[in-house]
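Quick question: what would this complex look like in 3D?
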Amino acid sequence: MTAQMTRRQFFKVTAGGVASVGLGALGLSPEQVQAATRPFKLERTTEARNICPYCSVSCGVLMYSIGDKAKNVKAEIIHIEGDPDNPVNRGTLCPKGAGLLDMIHSPNRLKYPEVREAGTSEWKRISWDEAITRIATHMRADRDANFQAKNADGVTVNRWQSAGFLASSAASNEAGYLTNKVLRGLGMTAIDTQARI
Amino acid sequence: MASLAPTFGRGAMTNHWVDIKNADLVLIMGGNAAEAHPCGFKWVIEAKKTRSAKLVVVDPRFTRSAAVADFYAPIRVGSDIAFLSGVINYLLTNDKINHEYVQAYTNAGYLINTGYTFNEGMFSGYDEAKRSYDNTTWKYQMDEATGFAKIDYSMQDPQCVLQLMKQHFAPYTPEVVSKVTGTPQKDYEKILEMMGECAKPNKVMTILYALGWTQHSVGSQNIRTMALIQLLLGNIGMAGGGINALRGHANVQGITDMCLIGASLPGYLANPTDKEATLAQFIEAKTPKLLQAGQMNYWSNYSKFFVSHLKSMYGPNATAENQFGYDWMPKIDGAQDVLALFERMHQGKLTGFFCQGFNPLASVPHAAKLGQALAKLKYLVVMDPLTTETSEFWKAHGEYHDVKPEEVQTEVFRLPANLFAEQEGSFTNSGRVIQWRWSGADAPGETKGDAEIMAALFLKLRDMYADGQGANSEPLKKLHWPYRIPNKPSPEELAKEVSGVALADVLDLKDPTKVLAKAGEQLAGFAQLRDDGSTSCGNWIYSGSWSQVGNLMARRDNSDPSGLGQTLNWGFAWPANRRILYNRASCDANGKPWDAKRTVIKWVGDKWTGNDIPDIRPDAPPAEVSPFIMNPEGVARLFAFAGMKEGPLPVHYEPFESPLAENPMFPSNAKAKNNPAARVFPGDQENFGTADAYPFVATTYRLVEHFHFWTKHSWLNAVTQPEQFVEIGEELAKSKGIAHGDKVRVSSKRGKIEAVAVVTKRIPTLQVNGKPTHTVGIPIHWGFKGVTRPGYLTNVLTPYVGDANVQTPEFKAFLVNIEKV
């Protein structure tokens, strides 16, 4: 591999070479093909750069996914490694970050909205539409009942104090910004995040 | 963070990860970077290898950081202020300070009001009934002729800060410190010598700390004590120096900057309160008055940051006529921290609660109280990628979580949120570097992103309020929602909104014929913000992160021409792409670097230039403008006349659960046993245990194999650390008949856990106040959900009290008993 060629370019060139020339032309019999080493999985992957979500070193990671991002193709990550270009982690990952792939594929990931009705002992799957409608209905009833437009001295305060929100320090800055915008927009003030703990 | 802002002006890690390699001495105390931040810790090793830097670790346990240290000393949990106060005493009495730095860049020479006193652990102005101080007597003496604070540059006046400090810290002699902390005196004296060396202008110490300092009822003052040491040594602003808060989550810095905190708005602007009825009153109250001639007092631009934020909130609806929508912004009333919220919930005052990627049942103290509180809600909404304990607080999980679902009437919703790998957008690392991320896969099932979920809730409510009924819906109808796909605002759109845009042509204030940014253009930075409604900026400190040039957070040029590791073209650091905060202080009064080999910036006759973005006006003459531009006196505050609830100087107080009967520093004053300004809710005092029933000191911590309560859901991590355990020293094990591998029960006044005992030499028994003191170490990572073996939430044990300033819970020092099961 030359210094100018990335690993993916290398795969592309060699893979394309095999396909266009044909196996026979390479002098390989079917038996030899069967005995050959499997092609690299990474050859078929798409690379994306992200950041380990654990501690605040925020190590750069390279994620390799299968699936070409076409409309009906579900991409799946099959490998994660440290980003060698990132000036902080320089390609390394720690024992926490080494398990990132298993976090993504954890059997305990949530897949669908659910509700646990009052007093019952099980979860029930519901649609997003039902979930958002029911939650918003609760929020509105609560806000209508407890919203304070002015305080006792007549100062405009426009606040809704009977609902609280704990915001995620694993969310992106953009999601965090929008969360803040929505919450203050509704008049909520009981807001906190992991920064405190 | 609440300790750094009142000292330096900004509440953030001053330096950055790679810069650690420039240090001569690295202190790790109140943290364990080798295990909690392993890939950042490599820069400590780099400093050792390339500069022969020394590493000192002070910790109750012999951690993996300690294992590679040049020197390790043990300490009793909760006694860090005593340890560090002794360092200050040593530096002052042995003249191990950088005189020129202290004189010119700190308030050491400032004169304090004569009414200021400190007696038997209490400062002047204490109100016992309110458990709070009136800080009037802590203020500077003012010169009536000039209107500025009085200074004695000789630092000899008995009322000047340096003299008050000498007096204040004098009792912390090595003998006393050793008695209070349990650190052997000869170990302590060795560390004093090593630190004292760094008073030389070309010797630099850095400090790496984390939750081991913050999670105390005196957390903010732990950090302030260290900040004082770094100022006396002249190490703030230097490459390889600073005070480095190693933060928790990958984007905890970013979410703090966005201020998802009741009391603040993005960019550390204050959320208005009932006291500020109008925008004018608010701006007047928040804009600091200049305290010294010629200083930058950068917060004097408060109105520009705030009005630009209101424009990002309410867009064209925000006009000068309606105070830019000031009335729509909710005013806060009282404390909004997580302990206050759960207290209100426990009193039945909350109807609904939302947990977005936050598992409070696991991560907030006194789990039994939390469970009772959650059961009083009408509705709970959990948005998370994983099945958290909080989402199943109503469900029975055997001995680990005993609850009767039929008795819990809370309606609980669980919404699947995506994970990092499936998101695009930016994260801000501990060193304030904002980096863009790209999505690599589709999330499973019907999962949505956090922004999409928030948009869905907002749009549904806005639709519902179209009927014109119910509570005031004007604020939410006026909210600016310009997104191309309204139910899916894109990270790019949001990032541009955060960074800021010109709504009309922005003119140069010095030369109005010059247009700095045309209407519609992205702004270059916060210097272009205006308070007349012509600019919009979601978060002023992020201004310029997406300029007219493009998305600077996505830059990936890792070249490092200075060799200092600054990589100015990698991502974007706030503020203004500065990598080392207060870097003006890396030079002497003439603008010459204290150490030319580590030049961060320097004065070249007419301007500042160098290997970083100067943290000062580029043409500010060195002799006139001081380095701490966010403070209205231009210098750092050794003495914090405002901003610290329990006093302007740090004091050793015992944890709320202490093995000692009294504070050994003030044995005759019971009021000064614990932090006199810490908040204790009614009912929680009775839930504190005492040493007769719970004789052992306990502390919680993290393991290298796990991250908080997340990785117990990941197979690889679960395999490497599958089962809950606690660590105890050999002496304690022997006295209690506990062998390595035995099952033990650890109990506090609030609950109990059962776990495997790991008997170790790593936790020494310390002699504190003449008595042997044993410590029980409790890793936090288990719970009743996960692919690990089930375990107990550690927070069934911990006390419900927090730091007086920021209410960070006291997870690091409490009392337990331990028995073999």
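Answer marked as accepted. The two ends of chain A are 48 Å apart (CA to CA).
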